[in-house]
Records
---
Amino acid sequence: MGFRVAVVGATGNVGREMLKVLAERDFPADRVVGLASSRSVGKEVSFGDDAVLKIADLDSFDFSETDLALFSPGARVSEKYAPRAADTGCVVIDNTSKFRMEPDVPLVVPEVNDLAIAEYRARNIIANPNCSTIQMVTALKPLHDAATIKRVVVATYQSVSGAGHEAMDELFNQTKGIYLNDTRDSVNFTAQIAFNVIPHIDVFMDDGSTKEEWKMIEETKKILDPAIEVSATCVRVPVFIGHAEAVNVEFESPIDEDQARDILASAPGINVVDRRMDGGYITPYQCVGDDAVFVSRIRSDPTVPYGLNLWVVSDNLRKGAALNAVQIAERLIQDYFRHAA
């Protein structure tokens, strides 16, 4: 028996990627519905190589005949509609920030804490972590199991696709405008993004950190281990797709770079590309369209007793959002729906 699936926010960057991933992985769905606001009703989105879905109205949709709903419409929309869907018996996998830190909602990266999926029964909602958190904890998990992580310091280099269609258009138009002497104002960012980097993602908080940095800190603790100390600086860079992170890790017990390389190479969801030569690493441009979290530049940090530096790269629309949500759905139907039937 196939499942009935809805994708909420199907016209956005992540929603379209969710539909693409569902089709690529041949998810066992008898019916897939694309949902968005009334402004998008009737628009067409691709599902696989040949199929096209017409967008239906989220506000009037009846979730009682739907098994799974993948949400990526923005936190305010999820706040209203995700509980509505969950109350009908539909299980929601939400990609927004709305439910991530709620104690009775599991926050899941399948390669890291798949057993937490069982907690979905409390509210019929599972939260997808922040894109930058997902790729970092995927890389940290096998190392934490081997030597126990004490502290993490991370600087991110995050692509504009994480801010949506309009942000991608802004980067394109500003870049083109510079060559044509046609200045374009910054609308989606606090400064010009073309040929620039901006150390500001989401809103500022009272302690001087941004909400994006707070997310990385608190989500890492919830997913991986509350005892880990995390310091994050999140930066937007003029890249269309693909997030990169420079990660410094301090451990409680010995682990050297060769051990780390072997551990990471055998871990699920990770591809180690670490050659000490020109091009012996992965860049955001190279990771686009790939499912893996790539780890490069693995080397010891001699400033602490047990320390390593890592370069971690992933497609933020895939593993950082859509793929992770679909992987959760796959585990859900394999390990929980089947037994409940």
---
Amino acid sequence: MNKVYRIVGGVLQTNSYVVTANDVDCIVVDCCDADRLSEFFAKNNLKCRALLLTHAHFDHCKDAAVLQKAGAEIYVHGDDVALIDGKGNLAEAMGFEFISFRPDVIVNDGDILDLYGVRVKVIHTPGHTSGGVCYLSENFLFSGDTLFKESVGRTDFPTGDRKQLSDSVKEKLFTLNQDYDVLPGHGEPTRLFFERSNNVYV
């Protein structure tokens, strides 16, 4: 079974997740704070091989270029590539500098990624951003800013859409037949079946 670690950092207290199958190589879901992540890698003798972005808002990818320079390949949905260099990444609006980068791999709905023993399925969940995705791996659902504990992501940012988000959650996540551990982009983890029964925002 994969090991999953949560690292919280950045101005918006964003969750990054480090996933490893062999205690040597790891992948990271979202990059909130490269310094904290690098310290974790060094302490645990891990090499970051891939960075999977749930979407291209700055708090999830501000330090992506740092990990890329250190050797990690960046994965992102094609519909969010335009946000990386545009105002849609929200860095400028919030007064933060942003180091641009170019993704190495464009993911699509239904893709299966096999990354150093970590098998990941991509689920395109537009609504928070047009290219927002969730990642399924074993019993974990990395939900980014699509689904939170008893809440959902905002839809008033560029490319956001309230109906799309609701449809994504109800039709793509709540129809999954396993009670996944939901690991969101902010806040505490939750369970999928709990959200299906109790989340009043969808």
---
Amino acid sequence: MEYRKFGKHIVLRLDPGEEILTQLRVLAEREDIRFAAVQGLGAVNDFTVGVFHTDTKVYESRRHQGAYEITSLTGTVDRMAGSFYAHLHFSAAGEDNTVLGGHLNEARISATGELVLTLIDGELDREKSPEVGLNLWKF
């Protein structure tokens, strides 16, 4: 991972074998990022995404392996109970151009990953909503 800061933005390059969420955590802790928007693209060969079932309040996750291009990576980095928290959604197209996606659980870079973080002044924490079943922003 290499990155550079430009004012309120951080541009980040991920290298083969690096895992997206792991490297975001390293960056957030190193730079004391408390709230940021994330967007990105690149290529992966192993990723797990999930879908939240509102009726059962359970995530169903699926792992995918092969050659994939990230078509969208978007979300936020913030805090839960004062610690790093990332909420990212992810989609990737395979060799047949079929797109798979959902809530990002894990993704390993195969060629490169290019992420841009927009730093937001302020800080938000999250807490588990018993009604919804998700970790929601606490205002």
---
Amino acid sequence: MLVNMNEILLPAREKGYGVGFFNAVNVEMARAIIETAEELKAPVMIGTAEVLLPAMELERVAEYLIPMAKKASVPVCVHYDHGLTPERCRQAIELGFTSVMYDCSMDDYETNLTKLKEMTEYCHARGVTVEGELGHVGDNEGAGKLENPSDYFTDPDTAVDFVTKTGVDSLAVAVGNAHGDYAFPPKLDFDRIREISEKTGLPLVLHGGSGLADEDFRQAVARGICKVNIFTDIDKAGRAGIEKGLAAGANSMTALIPYEIEAMKEVVREKLTLFGSVGQAQH
């Protein structure tokens, strides 16, 4: 069933489990995510990000994701992640996305706050939920890489002011996490996560989840992370599945699809189990 983010993350916060958000830039990815969530009776979030639109345009993504979410036997939130422009966020809403992240984290604080407040008012009037980001989650691949990441960590007291004035439904935090593959094991600031969670009362979001250790996930969820973003792991799994199929003698695209989907399902299964969301759609 198609729901918004609050219908998935508020129960997760109350009961202390995490929910996976997975980007799905083709139907095979979408199948792997939703079919696995159904098998495990787990709520799930699925969508795409503005940086991924060159791989599959937003309108095309909506054409397969929205109907699949509506038909699913578990709650599915279709989320537009890291929207960089209000135009694209509004387009996602018009296409049927039930949640958006408007990423203004590289703006100064007041600009981020003002833009998020305007977007939140626009979205809430349409039953759409909003994720904001405070601090800045860099990446591990060069562009946007931060020399001193701790300078951009989310400040708990500032977070209270931010969520109060913007009205956002969830908050992405910078606590030592980064997008892409980790060159070195990250050191997450778990005490900061707990403090932000306690002070804001909102579901918190961990970006850059691919590559973190299992114990990192457990600790993060235990301290208030309710949504974990995963893309690199599932993206690489799809490629590994194709390579496995080629090695097994599959000689056509249609013959490779089952290998691709099963490899991605394995990652989704692992993450949903790790986050504690298995069976939560039954309650």
